[in-house]
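User: I'm writing a short methods note and want a consistent example. For YiaAB two helix domain-containing protein, I'll paste the sequence; you return only the structure tokens, no commentary, since I'll be parsing the reply automatically.
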Amino acid sequence: MSRTPHTQAIQSAHSNAWVVQTWLSWVLAVGVTSMGVWFLPVDGWMKAFLGMGMLFTVGSTFSLAKTVRDVHEQQRIVSRIDEARMTKLLAEVDPLSPKL
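Assistant:
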């Protein structure tokens, strides 16, 4: 079965450089923010509050990214199933196809 270019999106794998850059930027962002909170000239409970907020933000970001990815993959699967059903339906009613 051949696929037309507009119906099948091709997703290439991430390069190693991209993966390393992504992890380094994440580690740097969390590290620098943590250092900023640590060295703030405020009471310990304020630092704890800011640190807790940062941890919740990081955790929520991972959850959001996973949810967005899962929703996108689910829509892609449903789209492919609908495409397969339409192709089968069109093949069944195609007047130019040879009858067996």
